[in-house]
Amino acid sequence: MELIHKLPCEACSTELCGVREQVRDICIQLGYPSTDTDCITLAIDEACANVIRHAYKDRTDGRFILEIYRDDGMVVFKLQDFADPVDRDCLQPPAENLREPGGLGLLLIHKVMDSVTLLPPPPNVGNLLEMRKKLPQ
Fold this sequence. Notes:
By secondary structure, this protein is of the alpha+beta class. It has 3 helices and 5 strands, in the order βααββαββ.
């Protein structure tokens, strides 16, 4: 697995603009069409926002790290936080009932990415989310 980019961030919503810009730039460099670039950028933004909102419960003293890799025809986004571990079931998207509030970000992430997995975290890491997307042909 080849590390393309590592982005440490404070768990604050003002950081998300920079995350979006960097993810967008990397997707363009990797050759994704603009529509895919927009969708991937939005999915990563949602995942980071979920860390801020749910893992850290909107506290601003947390941090997270987004690492982007190239691996065997895939781009791999690894999102690490240092919050309390979450229940694996919280990653399951809700049924596609758009009338109910909440969960649409998870639905989007699962629709955009080819795989979404909560990995066992390394020591001193709260949660490690891996999202994979096939590289463009």
